[in-house]
Amino acid sequence: MSKRQQKFEAANAKVTARAGRNLVFAVASGLFFGAVFVISLVFLEPLMLVLIIALSAISIYELATAFRIGGLRVPRIGVILGSIMILIGTWFWGADGMLWGMFFGSSLLLLWRLSEGIFAKQVVHKRTMLADLSAGIFTLVYIPLLMGMAVLMYLSDQVNGKLWVFAIIMLCVVCDISAYIVGVTLGKHKMSPRISPNKTWEGFSGAALALLIAGTLTAVYLLQLPWWVGVLLGAAVLITATTGDLVESLIKRCLGVKDISKLLPGHGGMLDRLDSILPSIIPFYTVAILTGAV
User: Fold this and answer.
1) The pTM is what?
2) How far apart are CA 146 and CA 208, in angstroms?
């Protein structure tokens, strides 16, 4: 190994120790999946439904597996089938289809888990069954139902829904990158050491500044909205993206798992990439409703 390679490895090791993930793998895998998303969003619209279902299924499988490790039995096949009902219903029948998909998906989950309890070798207590079902419903709401809101924006006839979905992803990426860079270089004060030891208030402040600027530019030049709406969107994404990341970290701590999965080098699992995006769909969907975009 040359001296240049040794210096690079040493520098990367320092950044990894400070940030909690391998920078090279994180950037490479992030760029790859970002490119796949943009290509699907812009050029391969017929495959967007397939991509969304695949992302939802992988994330649900990861979360359901983590729940099992933590002692909660969430039927992985049942909850994945429920998510497919929600997303297909949303794609073809809009908001009504999303709600009906949630109803049938929840019903399927209920029947699936009850049937497992009936044929179990040991008696399943009511509290255990209730906890399992609650975790399953949470999974359906947390992943496919929120994705369904993004689908409604994507398919909107009122505006170019692709721009709205792209704006969500872009602002979440801005939040993640700015918080990461500022946190690694200037971070000293931990935001929540017990839940997410790598998050700092300096990184949060850097993300706040970047999002206010990016949100304003996005609203004015991309979504054709007043600048103050962009400020509100930037502030909302700051809160939802940060909270989403902390909530996922809290779930992992409560379940006793270090990572949701090791699917993506440098990132963990697919859900680790979506934890800030999923809750950020809510403020965008709210603004879309208020402005008549959906």
Assistant:
1) 0.85
2) 24
